Amino acid sequence: MTDLSPKDVIAMGKAVGLEIKEPDLSEVTEVLNAIIEAVDEINPPGLENVEPLPIILPPVGKEE
Amino acid sequence: MNKGDLPFLSISELSYYIYKKDVSPVEVVEAHLDRIDKLDSKLHAFITVCREDALKAARKAEEDISRGIYKGPIHGIPLGAKDQWWAKGVLTTCGSTILNNFVPNEDATVIDKLKEAGGILLGKTNMTEFAMGYTQHYPYGTPRNPWNLDHMPGGSSAGSGSAPAAFLCPAALGEDTAGSIRGPASYCGIVGLRPSVGRVSRYGLIGSSYSMDVIGPLARTVKDTALVLEAIAGHDPKDKYTWKAPVPTYSSMLDGNINGQRIGIITDMMDAPSLEPEVRAAVRTAATVLEEIGAKVSEVSFPFISNAGSIASPIYMVEGAANQWDNLTKRPDEYERNMRLTYFTSALIPAQTYYKAQRLRELFRVGFLKLFEKYDAILYPTQPTPAMKIIETGGFGTKDSVLADLRGRRAFGNAANLVGSPSLSVPCGFSKSMLPIGMQLIGKPMEEETILKIGHAYEKATEWHTMRPNL
Fold first, then answer.
1. Which phi and psi (to 5°) does residue B131 adopt?
2. Do A47 and B363 touch (CB under 8 A)?
């Protein structure tokens, strides 16, 4: 995946109502590209069939 | 007993003397307040000290106990609490100037439960802003490590780590999203427990990440940690994520017997390039001690663990930014710069990155839980290094340095929170420069007693918990 440019980051910020300017802009771009790449490179087999389970809910109607 | 000696006693010892009426809760609170007066101007462990309220509560505890109303081992004990949740009538800042006037009119459930058990809120402890990221400029004073004031106590529960370590209070409550209890415990040479998700109510918590935040105790001994957990754990109708499972009397289960307990030491973490050799050596030696006292320690590989930081970070970052959305869009300049950078980044993480991380989380969780088919507990270092120096420059550097952090340091703190497991950090040594080192024991969800038993047995066999910083 191609890295996002500072211009891309400005546009993404604008889309959610955030005005991101220098000196923050360069660093936000660096960190954002790192986060995206870190997740992008993890590709275990069968991932596409996994359903996310963000939090384990307590069993309903049980005391334990 | 000399009043000046009281702060050096554990909760177990203090409660014994309080129960016998040899010591008054008023004397205990006064002794800790004296120590705060003497030392906190350099440690900045507390944002707010509840001096008058604590003394008032101590007088009430003294009166109750003298009338034969004794509530248990926490009765009359002064405790710190991270400034991340409500305490009725007490300034609650979450480490931010944005909340510098926020005084809740209700207690969070953990504060309510502590008071119910007779505990006394001594003060609200310092923390990184909104419990996220690496704060550089702390608005309420830079928290410092009692073992070396040039080093950080860890975060985000910074003051909840340094205050018990400096004997300003016997124990404190912290909150752990991605290592924020265990990290400060390791850096400050004390015990810290991240309970299972669902074990402790989060009602009244100013949340960082809804799917990972957990409130838990930090104390100087495993038994004290267990005593505080007993007081705060349990189902809360105000928090739908808490379980109705009974709360064991953890402290009564700490018999020192860990014969046959199966402990898996994760080789992928022990061989991690980011792990400092003296931390590796300390944890290896700790594993040997555990074997000598009856545990069966064997090596296990779980290579996926090296992805823990990369998987967890986008999840808690997105959730954290969502919690802050109103402030972030309306008053971004009021955040400390590192925090603003973190939230700006968090706000822009693409939905597909977040969703993929959630899928990876489930794979991680299922894979990690399989380890418990062969092991009762998992062991590796809490942090790859001893406490780092206090940050002198802001920002996060380049993409490569952030990637190195995600693949390296962040892997250590992020397994238990991906799984929902309890995790205990126990002191297991010191670096050559006399900074504490901690080991991390991870247990099955809702089985805190297993790791507390192992940690306690190890503590009994070693003397790390008896060492004191020279302040």
1. 60, 30
2. yes
- CA-nearest residue of chain B to A33? B399
What is the enclosing helix (H) or strand (E) of B441?
A: strand B436-442
Q: Which residues of B touch A20 (CB under 8 A)?
A: 344
pTM greater than 0.80 (yes/no): yes
**Listed residue (B164, B123, B162) closest to B143, CA to CA:** B162
Interval B234-277: pLDDT, tens: 999 999 999 988 999 999 999 999 999 999 999 999 999 999 99
DSSP reduced 3-state for A61? coil
Tokens 């999203």 belong to residue: B177
Element (H, E) at B95: none
- Give the domain ranges of chain A: 6-41
Cβ within 8 Å of B, A 32-61? 32-40, 42, 44, 46-47, 50-59
Contact assessment for residue B465 and residue B167, using Cβ atoms and an 8 Å cutoff: no
Q: Can you list the domains of chain B with their CATH numbers?
A: 3-466 (3.90.1300.10)
Phi, psi of A3 (to 5 degrees): -65, 150
Q: Which of B42, B1, B39 is nearest to B18 (CA)?
A: B1
Q: How far is CA B261 from CA B253, B256, B268, B299, B451, in A?
A: 14, 12, 21, 14, 10
Q: Are B222 and B459 in contact (CB under 8 A)?
A: yes
ipTM: 0.94
Q: Is A17 on the interface with B (CB under 8 A)?
A: yes
- B250's CB contacts (< 8 A; 6+ apart) are B226, B227, B229, B230, B448, B449, B452
